[in-house]
Structures are given as structure tokens and as C-alpha cells.
Specification:
Chain A: The chain crosses the membrane at residues 30-52. Chain A: This is DUF58 domain-containing protein. Chain A: Residues 193-379 form the DUF58 domain. Chain A: InterPro entries: DUF58. The structure holds two protein chains of two kinds. In chain A, 36% of the residues lie in helices and 27% in strands. Chain A contains twelve helices and 22 strands. In chain A, strand 10 and strand 11 (141-147) form a beta hairpin. Chain B has two domains: 25-213, 3-Layer(aba) Sandwich (Rossmann fold), CATH 3.40.50; 278-363, no CATH class. In chain B, helix 1 (2-18) packs antiparallel against helix 10 (233-253), helix 3 (58-64) runs parallel beside helix 4 and helix 13 crosses helix 14. Classes of the chains: A alpha+beta, B alpha/beta. The interface between A and B is large, with 76 and 61 residues.
């Protein structure tokens, strides 16, 4: 049950009546009684809310930064019209609008209400409750009740680095079989035999094949295909730190490293899938958070964003030996292990560095990390003692990053350390360079 | 909102309305020594052998009235018709000072006329009390004199002081009591007139307004507090407004569905550890560590530009940098490997020095 503003207004106007009434005490009692009776009548005449049948339709997936409409169909099987307001409650970060929906369903009919969600964070957003307030014909009182109408919307990573994909694909095609190479080199594999045409390098003539046929035949080569790329996402505490400027409003202190890493991982996966490589995905902190393997190239991106969507950075120290074991257990064949983490000297020295040889002896390892542009800004601070002290602290951190990078490279590990906006293209470039060099 | 505002207004006004009037000044009270009081007159009378009895109620006055006493009724005393009748029935001499209702009962035959200004006036009559006193500060209201009465101090032809005999009692009516107050008593013949009028009998019974205005009980009428003047319906209307506020509270208080809780992610900038370290350097004046970090960074950046491996010794780097920039080797060495700066200014200078050196290495 709920009262309305009209009931309050009526009671306030009653004060005037009391002032003018010959017997004010009786007037007060009478008014209270009248109000109670009117409210009771209104409640009786209001459409029932318990019997309403509600169900939802609409989208279940949305990219972060975009809006999605979720429909709520309200069916009124009762004998009275249901008129009032509906609140379709969602968590605050789902960005549901409008807060209140007007409802007017005649008996036996149905109406569809639309709530627009503009999520501000990645992850699954579950609808909470639908509360219906049905106002009586006098507009004095309302019946109220809540229904559980489950629905969830998965907010996917936005894949902002999509814009870099055409450029990287163009570079890939330069390596790729569109221009079959006649020179055998690193990173190429046998493609096909074709007839010799004037201008072909005579060194590429396949004499055996030419002998079998009455024509001169040359071998062509193409970049190696069907390699394996395993993207490993570190979801430990170092991924929770916020860096750079969030691409969508509502996150004043930047975007978590994890989200930037995901963005880079998506570009890499899209590129590798087009290049004909198989992409697997592992998210790990102390346990395996997500594992994606054996998806077809066409489904890869959608499977990947689905797997990534609910992952949040956990505030625990990542378990590097466990992660290496998980990778070794899953990657039987040689593959490129792309480890998206942070170049945190202390965490790396105790965690990853001791166990890295186990990994790098069997696989090619690439470590990609998001650098903090704020640290670069601080390092260039000069003029006052305050700024110079900050600059020294920033330089110290950068020195540690350089030191750990040097140690990683010393173990034969590729390192990509780039600011948030540039990490995805830098990682893609590193992948293309490895592919061109035939190190996959 | 409107209802709430109305209620606040009403509750704020109630104390103002029911607060009791100011009772410090008590005009023509024989115990009051303020300008408007009558203590000076009372003292004068006592000195002349007249005993002054101060009474606050008509019943007390009637009880102590006798043939040797005169009643003094000031204009601050509000009398009901019954009171006036009781006084008239007591039959004693009475001096009625100032404007008084029920004059028709107290002084039969004397009618009030026009209001006149109070000022110094001449007696212009044969009344010995007035002629002995001479001019006095008098006025207020003029009277119509009945047959056989004496009128003095005329204003525009009508007297402002009337002496008349009613049923054997001598009744004196004065249009204004101001000449009897402490403020006016020293002027003109005011004191003489007041003494002459009030001191005709050995006892003077002086009726003043009661200390606490308990008008409802004394039944003097017209002396109600503001609380009593508010219509009976107002408290009930306020009660009705309280009901309205309760209804509004229920209206606003009922939430449409539950509060939705959400597990929020941590919001911490990755650069906070660096900022914290910077503040720590500053608070501890760690110039040695700060300088070391700045120098190491500069050297790390310069060594590849100088064509040296990261493992190059300080001497090699200093020599190469000196050659490249054309600066003196000791100068370059003190910038790159010198002692820790002595103060914050030196640290700032060192940072600038390293920047210059680095730029020269880069640009040359």
C-alpha cells in the first residue's frame, strides 16, 4: 500500500475546513474518517498488482559505451485496469533509464515498456526487481508489489582498437599468400607448384617436379599458417590499477589495466585469426578464471568477448608458477604465449622470473604491459622541488621497468611496454614481426 | 512542500501569539517608581499623614472602604460593569483619574465629551482644591457637567475636571491622570492639585491593575492574553495539518521497490604508488635517492645515444659525453656522478642540468 500526494493535499485542505467548521474537533475526526474511507475505497478499486504477469524481451548483449533496450511486457489478467508507475530496478552501473515508467493496462490487455540500459562497466548486469504501483481511480492510494523478472545483460569489452585492424590486416597481407613469395625464407612454408613464367627467380625452380612434367615448374611459399597463439590475461592485483583516460564517461579515475589489456588481446586475436592462426585464451590469477580453446575462426571474437566480459581484477597476488603450470598443461604443441600483465618489478622478480624458463624453453613468450602515462608526465616534472621529487619517484619506477624488461629480454622473452592507447597496435606489430621472422 | 511550509509557519507563530505582554511599566501604581508610576504621589500623601493602601482587586477595595477613606481609580484599571456597580454601591468618596468605562455607574450624570489635548490649563472655577493649586497639566477628555456639579480646567468651554455629589458620596473625575505620575508631578501645580484631590480623607485606597493579568479569573474583561484571543478552531486546524504532514510522510516515505546494492570495483589510480613515493622523498628530504634516480634515468637514456653498452663504466660514459657535448669532463662528471645535492634548490638545479646535458647529447 502507498499513499499519493493527492491524499496529503486533501488532508492539508482539511485544515481550512476545520478552521471554518462550527465544531472543529468533530471536523477533525470526521475528516480523518473520511480520508480513511476514501483511501480504503481507492485501494479496493485499484487494479491488483500481484496477479500481473510480467516477462521480458530484448537484447542480452551490449558493448560497453553503447545503449541497449530491454522490453518489459506487462500483462493484466485481472478484472480492473492497472494504472500507475513501474520501477524496473537494475544495478546503478547498468545505467537504466528512465527510473520510473508510466503504466496503464486495461483489464485483459498487455503493454510493453522499454528500459534503456547504458552500462558504465563491463560484466553481467542482472535485473533486480520490478515494482508496480497501481493507483486507485480517486488517485489517493495505491497498491504496490514487486515481481522478480530475471534477465541479464552481458556488457562486453568495447574493442576500441578495432580501428587499428584494417591497417594491421594490410600489413598482414603483405606477408600473406596474396603475394606468394618465391624465396624460401624464415617464417614461410610450402604453398604450391606453378608453371614458370619469365621473371621468376630461377633458384625457385623445383627440378624434381619439372622432371616429372614436361614443363618448368617453380615452388611458391607463403607465410606459415596454423600456428597457435595463447593469450594469457593476468587478472591479479596489478591489473586493478587504473590508468589513462577511460573511453566512456562515468569512470573519472581512468580505466583498469585489465580493460586495456583485453582491448589489446582482442586486436591480437582478430589479427591472428585472420592470419590463419589458432587462438586460445586463458585468464588466471590464483586459479583459472577463464579458458577458451578450439573455437572456430568465425566465432573467435564473439566467444572471446563473452569470456572476457565477466572477468574482474581480483585483489590477490597472481600465482605465477600456477599460471605457468596451467599454460604448460594446456599448450601441448609449441605456441606463442602472449602474457598480458604489468611490469611490476617486485611482483615479477618473485613471481614470474624464476618460473619463466620452464615456459620459454617450450614456447615463444611475449610479455605485454600497459605503461602509465601519468608516470611519464611526472617524470618530466621540473622547476619546483615538489615536482622534481615526484619526477625522481617516477624515474625510479621507470628504471625498475627498464631493468625487468632487460632481464626478460635476457631470457629470450619479447616485451611490449606501451601507454594504454598504443598497447593494442604495438602488440599487433610485435605479433606481425614475430610472424614475419617465422618465430611462431 | 506547501503543507510543510504552512505548518512550520504556524508553529513559529504560536509562541509569539501566546507570549504574555510586557509588564514592567505599571502606570499609576503607588509602588512603581518609573516615569509612569505613582510612587512620588504616594510618598507625598504619606508625608501629609494620609495612609495609602494599595489594592489590586475590586473586592479588596470594597472590603477596606469606609467613611474615612477615599478611593482612587486609575485609568489603567479595566472594570467590568459589575465591578463598577460594586464600587458605586460601597458609597465612599472616589477619585476617578483618566478615561474610564462605566463612568455612568461610577459618576452618575457625568458624560464624557470630546477628546482634548493634555496641556497646562488654568482652573477657572471656584473649587478650592483647584484654585489653591493653580495651573495644572490636564486634559485628556472633557465632560458634560450635570446640574449642581463643579467643573474646572475647561478645554474649549467644557471642563476636564468635574466634582459631583452622587448619593452622598463626593465623586471627582479627571480627564487625564498624567499630572499624578512621577514624571509630571513636579511641573506646574500638579503636585498641589494631586494632593488636594487625593488627600481629602485620612485613608486613600488606591486601586491598581493586578500584577499578573489573570483576566479570565478576575473577569475584568478585555484583558485577555493572545492565547485566549486565538479562535478555538486553530489548534484543531493545526492538528489537522499534523495529520496532513503524516500523510505526506507516508507518501514520500514509501519507496518504489528496494534499494539496489552492487559490488563495486576498486577505484585506485595505478600511479598512486609513485605519487606516494614522491611525497615520501619530499617529506624525508631524500635528495640522495632522488638525485640517484634522476641520474640513473638520464644515463640509461644517454648511453645508447653515445654508442655505449649499458654495462659501460662511469669513466667511459663521462668521457664520451664530454667529447660529444664539448663540455669539460669534471663538469659532466659532477652532473652525472657528483655528490648528492645539499638542498632542494640544488636538486632542482641538478635536474635542469641533466636535462641540458641529455638534450646536448641528443642534438649533437
Amino acid at each position: 500500500m502507498a499513499l499519493t500526494g493527492r491524499a496529503g493535499l486533501l488532508a492539508a485542505l482539511g485544515a481550512l475546513v476545520v478552521l471554518l467548521a462550527p465544531d472543529p474537533s468533530v471536523a477533525v475526526l470526521g475528516l480523518a474518517l473520511l480520508l480513511a474511507v476514501l483511501v480504503a475505497v481507492d485501494l479496493l478499486l485499484a487494479g491488483g498488482v500481484r496477479g500481473l504477469r510480467l516477462h521480458r524481451d530484448g537484447e542480452r548483449l551490449v558493448r560497453l559505451g553503447e545503449s541497449v533496450a530491454v522490453g518489459l511486457v506487462v500483462e493484466n489478467p485481472g478484472r480492473r485496469r492497472v494504472r500507475g508507475v513501474v520501477r524496473d530496478a537494475w544495478p546503478p552501473s547498468a545505467g537504466a533509464a528512465p527510473r520510473h515508467l508510466k503504466l496503464d493496462v486495461p483489464a485483459g490487455q498487455r503493454r510493453r515498456l522499454v528500459t534503456t540500459l547504458t552500462p558504465t562497466r563491463r560484466g553481467d548486469r542482472e535485473a533486480v526487481t520490478v515494482t508496480v504501483r497501481s493507483v486507485g481511480p480517486l488517485g489517493l492510494a495505491a497498491r504496490q508489489g514487486s515481481h522478480l523478472v530475471p534477465w541479464s545483460v552481458r556488457v562486453l569489452p568495447p574493442f576500441l582498437s578495432r580501428k587499428h585492424l584494417p591497417g594491421k590486416l594490410a600489413r598482414l597481407r603483405e606477408l600473406d599468400g596474396r603475394h606468394p613469395a618465391l624465396v624460401r625464407g624464415q617464417g614461410t612454408e610450402f604453398d604450391s607448384l606453378r608453371e614458370y613464367v619469365v621473371g621468376d627467380d630461377v633458384r625457385s625452380i623445383d627440378w624434381r617436379a619439372s622432371a616429372r612434367r614436361s614443363d618448368v615448374v617453380v615452388r611458391t611459399w607463403r607465410p606459415e599458417r596454423d600456428r597457435r597463439v595463447l593469450i594469457v590475461l593476468d587478472t591479479g592485483r596489478t591489473s586493478a590499477g587504473r590508468v589513462g583516460v577511460a573511453p566512456h564517461p562515468g569512470q573519472p579515475s581512468g580505466w583498469p589495466r585489465l580493460d586495456w589489456s583485453m582491448d589489446a588481446a582482442l586486436l591480437l586475436a582478430a589479427l591472428a585469426a585472420r592470419a590463419g592462426d589458432r587462438v586460445d585464451f586463458l585468464a588466471h590469477d590464483r586459479t583459472v578464471r577463464a579458458w577458451l580453446s578450439g573455437t572456430s575462426r568465425n566465432d573467435l571474437l564473439s566467444s572471446l568477448v563473452n569470456a572476457m566480459a565477466p572477468i574482474e581484477a581480483e585483489l590477490v597476488e597472481a600465482d605465477a608458477p600456477g599460471m605457468v603450470s596451467a599454460v604448460l598443461a594446456r599448450a601441448k604443441r609449441r605456441c606463442l604465449v602472449v602474457l598480458l600483465t604489468d611490469l611490476n618489478a617486485a611482483a615479477m622478480e618473485e613471481g614470474l622470473l624464476p618460473v619463466l624458463p620452464r615456459l620459454s624453453s617450450r614456447h615463444t613468450v611475449l610479455v605485454a604491459a600497459v605503461a602509465d602515462p601519468r608516470v611519464a608526465d611526472m617524470a618530466s616534472g621540473r622547476g619546483t622541488a615538489e615536482l622534481v621529487y615526484d619526477a625522481a619517484a617516477a624515474e625510479r619506477l621507470r628504471g625498475e621497468r627498464r631493468w625487468i624488461t632487460a632481464r626478460l629480454r635476457g631470457q629470450g622473452v619479447e616485451v611490449v611496454d606501451a601507454p594504454p592507447e598504443e598497447l593494442a597496435p604495438a602488440l599487433a606489430d610485435a605479433y606481425l614481426a614475430l610472424k614475419a621472422a617465422g618465430r611462431l | 512542500m506547501l503543507v510543510i511550509a504552512l505548518l512550520v509557519l504556524v508553529t513559529a507563530m504560536v509562541p509569539v501569539l501566546v507570549s504574555s505582554p510586557d509588564t514592567r511599566d505599571r502606570p499609576l501604581d503607588p509602588a512603581d517608581s518609573s516615569l509612569l508610576g505613582g510612587k512620588a504621589l504616594a510618598e507625598l500623601l504619606r508625608r501629609h499623614g494620609v495612609s495609602v493602601e494599595r489594592v489590586e482587586s475590586v473586592s479588596a477595595m470594597a472590603a477596606s472602604a469606609g467613611p474615612d477613606s477615599q478611593l482612587l481609580i486609575g485609568d489603567t484599571v479595566a472594570l467590568s460593569a459589575d465591578d463598577a456597580r460594586a464600587i458605586a454601591a460601597s458609597g465612599g468618596d472616589r477619585l476617578i483619574a483618566g478615561h474610564q468605562t462605566h463612568l455612568d455607574i461610577l459618576a452618575k450624570g457625568v458624560l464624557t465629551g470630546k477628546d482634548v489635548r493634555s496641556r497646562s490649563r488654568e482652573p477657572q472655577c471656584a473649587l478650592p482644591e483647584a484654585t489653591r493649586a493653580g495651573s495644572a497639566f490636564i486634559g485628556g477628555v472633557s465632560f458634560t457637567v450635570p446640574e449642581g456639579a463643579t467643573g474646572c480646567y475647561p478645554a474649549a468651554g467644557r471642563p476636564t475636571l468635574v466634582r459631583h455629589t452622587v448619593d452622598g458620596a463626593t465623586v471627582t473625575v479627571v480627564g487625564d491622570s498624567a499630572f499624578m505620575t512621577n514624571q509630571r508631578l513636579g511641573e506646574d501645580g500638579n503636585a498641589a492639585l494631586a494632593l488636594n484631590l487625593a488627600g481629602t480623607k485620612p485613608r486613600l485606597i488606591w486601586l491598581t491593575a493586578p500584577e499578573e493579568p489573570t483576566s479570565g479569573v478576575t473577569g475584568t474583561g478585555g484583558n485577555k492574553t493572545l492565547g485566549e484571543l486565538i479562535p478555538d478552531a486553530v489548534p484543531w486546524a493545526i492538528l489537522q495539518l499534523a495529520v496532513a504532514v503524516a500523510v505526506v510522510a507516508v507518501w514520500r516515505g514509501r519507496r518504489l521497490g528496494p534499494v539496489v546494492a552492487e559490488r563495486l570495483p576498486v577505484v585506485v589510480r595505478a600511479s598512486e604508488t609513485v605519487e606516494g613515493r614522491g611525497r615520501l622523498y619530499r617529506s624525508r628530504r631524500a635528495r640522495d635517492r632522488a638525485a640517484q634516480a634522476l641520474r640513473a634515468a638520464a644515463i640509461d637514456r644517454m648511453a645508447p645515444r653515445l654508442g655505449l653498452p649499458p654495462t659501460a663504466s662511469p669513466e667511459e660514459i663521462v668521457a664520451a659525453a664530454a667529447v660529444r657535448t664539448g663540455r669539460e669532463a669534471p663538469e659532466v662528471r659532477s652532473a652525472m656522478y657528483g655528490p648528492a645535492p645539499a638542498d632542494d634548490g640544488a636538486l632542482v638545479a641538478l635536474a635542469a642540468q641533466l636535462d641540458t646535458l641529455e638534450r646536448q647529447v641528443r642534438d649533437s
